[in-house]
Amino acid sequence: MSQPEITVLYFAAASTATGLTEQSVILPASQYPLSSLSSFLVSLHPDVGLDKILQSSQWSVNAEMVDDVEEVTLKGGEEVAIICPVSGG
Asked: CA 30 to CA 73: how far, in whole Å?
């Protein structure tokens, strides 16, 4: 059985931190809570400050903004975007 895979889209600061705009990620489980994805992505990209960026970012799944990450379970095939806050200045 193939492992569930998602596409993660990085924007703004998240893209700068990871050096990527898009990444295919194999999920550790077939039913993976979106609320756990943040720490999983940080483990893939340690020491670049991604954890701080994700704390203030919003998520979208298949182009729909997520209000409550606790309510979303990833099953594979989703496109997950990290929407960073736009810094004013």
From this structure: 9
Which of 26, 25, 11, 21 lies closest to 84, judged by CA?
11
Backbone angles phi, psi at 27, to 5 degrees: -75, 145
CA 52 from chain centre, in angstroms, equals 13
Element spanning 16, H or E: helix 12-18
pTM over the 0.85 mark: yes
Q: State the DSSP code for 70.
A: G
What does the alpha-carbon distance between residue 23 and residue 7 come to, in Å, rounded to a whole number? 6
Contact residues for 86 (Cβ-Cβ < 8 A; gap 6+): 12
Other CB atoms within 10 A of residue 46 CB:
8
pLDDT tens digit sequence for 33-78? 999 999 999 999 999 999 999 999 999 999 999 999 999 999 999 9
